[in-house]
């Protein structure tokens, strides 16, 4: 894959023979000169401990990236999305102030 074909937010298939035994999928978070930082979104259950050690992120050379043809069937990594909602104080808390 070429740098021009890689876009931030894109889901790509990747391989890393050094770290993970099986192919995985990841979302592009940052693009470098010859590689991209992927947040691992789907992986083989056998690679779970390695993925956890990598904090669900890995830098992969463009040569090891491919476009995703079908949805992943492996284990899905947890997302880091945080949702914030406003919590109203109890009536007792308002009265004591």
TrEMBL record:
Region described as Disordered: spans on this chain: 70-97
Biased composition (Basic and acidic residues): 83-97
Protein name listed in UniProt: DUF2187 domain-containing protein
Organism of provenance: Lactobacillus johnsonii ATCC 33200
């Amino acid at each position: 894959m070429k740098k021009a074909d890689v876009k931030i937010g894109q889901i790509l298939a990747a391989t890393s023979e050094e770290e993970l035994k099986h192919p995985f999928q990841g979302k592009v978070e940052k693009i470098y000169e010859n590689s991209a930082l992927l947040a691992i979104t789907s992986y083989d259950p056998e690679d779970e401990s390695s993925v956890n050690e990598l904090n669900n992120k890995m830098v992969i050379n463009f040569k090891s990236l491919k476009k995703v043809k079908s949805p992943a069937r492996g284990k899905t990594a947890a997302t880091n999305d945080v949702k914030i909602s406003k919590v109203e104080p109890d009536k007792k808390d308002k009265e004591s102030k």
